[in-house]
Design the sequence.
């Protein structure tokens, strides 16, 4: 009995340490695994750069894809960003975080390296675009509903300033064409009011606002030249563009290329064109005509028209290759299956590509050897060689629209 | 012959005016796509408004379908609403106006 008891006890006694041992082994091996994982992800985070990454807006599902442009491959998808029709993005100066402006008024901060949504605020009912300040500390969002600009801290997205776009008898105007400018300024245009405003944050987080009235009817978008000096708003309600010299705002806004439509009746504009700082090549700026199937060329030394190029349809994006030698153009429906390439020297069309229905956006790699094109209706991203025009890669994406490369982080106005 | 044809043609025209023909299922799919993607570029993908106003049933309440159809076909001169008659037929535009009023706009 005793022996039996002893053996039972011994057995019991044995079993306890045995379980403990297994437990220790299990726990310690799990610990090792966790540590390994932590080390691996730490090392990845430490060794992976973000300079060759891009964010692709997938407008169907409120997601973005993060892709890399060295091997042209998809890395990950980030979900939960809300209604992303017409969404755009800017980047933190370290190129790690993207700030995505959604149509539903959501402002989302995405970690490009970890592939995670790190912060999100609903800042208005309906927004259109945004900009990041020169020092990278402020992110501004332009809104349709209620019209105005809201400015947030980039670190935690807390509200810093609220600038309602009030005009006339207290109406709100939709705001478009918001860009950053040197001197910790934001510049934007009021669609309904026909005004350009500068919000100057150089003295701190309370902006000083300067307003320029009567700049023309219905400014629809604007660009700032890559040096940050000239702000140019395109006009929808009349022919011409509005030009503001940010070195000399006291000189006011002047009209350039008035009457480019020569009084002829406009063709229907099925999609609002866009203006971007990319469209500057040397002394020339290339901008879409409104209601004419033409790209207008502006000589930036004289601010006179330097030519116009007949294209396939109503241009939407007119983008200069970073070296300025080529200009790529996409179109509104029904010509949104095509892309045309203009030689910036001869001002002639040198190629017409047909990526497929729903070409919504194009973005050059930082030095321009390849260009990414989103083809919405085919659920594809295409990467083209800009010298041979051959397609180098095709990636699946869900109703892709805007493509934004992190290299934008170091460019004024983008 | 001509005497016999005339009433037929007139009655055919009458039919076309009285009831817009429903677009084929394939055309309906194209129109739904157009409504979300292309009208959506101004009115918002969910048609809750953008540069153009909201096109939801509450926003359009009380507006006759013929009026919306005319807006779609001929646009609103002096505003950003373009005339779609180059791309859409009378039947297409009436069908779209009816979908908007009924709120049946998702694919």
Sequence:
């Amino acid at each position: 009995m005793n022996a039996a008891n002893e053996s039972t006890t011994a057995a019991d006694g044995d079993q306890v340490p045995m379980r403990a041992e297994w437990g220790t082994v299990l726990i310690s091996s799990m610990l090792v695994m966790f540590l390994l994982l932590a080390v691996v992800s730490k090392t990845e985070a430490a060794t992976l750069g973000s300079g060759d990454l891009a964010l692709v807006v997938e407008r169907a599902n409120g997601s973005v894809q993060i892709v890399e442009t060295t091997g042209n491959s998809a890395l990950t998808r980030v979900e939960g960003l809300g209604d992303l029709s017409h969404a755009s993005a800017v980047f933190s100066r370290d190129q790690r975080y993207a700030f995505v402006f959604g149509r539903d008024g959501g402002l989302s901060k995405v970690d490009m390296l970890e592939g995670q949504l790190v912060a999100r605020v609903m800042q208005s009912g309906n927004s259109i675009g945004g900009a990041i300040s020169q020092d990278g500390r402020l992110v501004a969002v332009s809104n349709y509903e209620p019209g105005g600009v809201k400015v947030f801290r980039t670190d935690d997205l807390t509200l810093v300033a609220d600038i309602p776009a009030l005009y006339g008898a207290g109406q709100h105007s939709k705001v478009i064409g918001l860009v950053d400018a040197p001197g910790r300024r934001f510049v934007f245009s009021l669609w309904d009011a026909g005004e350009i405003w500068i919000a100057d944050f150089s003295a701190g987080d309370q902006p000083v606002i300067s307003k320029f009235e009567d700049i023309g009817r219905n400014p629809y978008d604007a660009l700032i030249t890559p040096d940050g000096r000239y702000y140019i708003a395109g006009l929808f309600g009349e022919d011409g563009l509005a030009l503001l010299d940010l070195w000399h705002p006291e000189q006011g806004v002047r009209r350039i290329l008035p009457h480019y439509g020569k009084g002829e009746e406009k063709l229907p504009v099925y999609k609002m064109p866009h203006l971007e700082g990319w469209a500057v090549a040397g002394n020339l700026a290339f901008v879409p005509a409104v209601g004419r199937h033409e790209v207008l060329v502006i000589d930036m030394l004289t601010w006179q028209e330097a030519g116009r190029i007949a294209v396939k349809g109503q241009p939407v994006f007119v983008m200069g290759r970073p070296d300025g030698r080529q200009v790529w153009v996409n179109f509104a429906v029904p010509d949104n299956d095509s892309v045309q390439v203009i030689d910036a020297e001869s001002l002639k069309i040198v190629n017409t590509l047909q990526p497929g229905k729903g070409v919504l956006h194009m973005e050059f790699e930082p030095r321009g050897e390849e260009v990414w094109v989103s083809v919405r209706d085919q659920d594809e991203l295409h990467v083209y060689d800009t010298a041979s025009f051959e397609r180098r890669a095709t990636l699946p994406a869900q109703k892709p629209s805007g493509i934004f490369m992190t290299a934008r982080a170091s460019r004024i106005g983008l | 012959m001509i005497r016999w044809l005339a009433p037929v043609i007139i009655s055919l025209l009458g039919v076309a005016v009285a009831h817009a023909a429903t677009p084929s299922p394939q055309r309906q799919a194209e129109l739904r796509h157009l409504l979300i993607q292309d009208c959506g570029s101004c009115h918002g993908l969910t048609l809750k408004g953008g540069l153009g106003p909201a096109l939801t049933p509450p926003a359009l309440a009380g507006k006759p379908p013929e009026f919306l159809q005319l807006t779609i076909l001929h646009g609103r001169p002096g505003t950003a609403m373009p005339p779609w008659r180059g791309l859409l037929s009378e039947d297409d535009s009436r069908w779209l106006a009816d979908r908007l009023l009924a709120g049946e706009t998702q694919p």
User: Anything to note?
Assistant: The domain at 25-102 of chain B is CATH 1.10.760.10 (Cytochrome Bc1 Complex; Chain D, domain 2). The helical segments of chain B are 2-18, 25-43, 57-60, 65-74, 90-102. Chain B has one domain: 25-102.
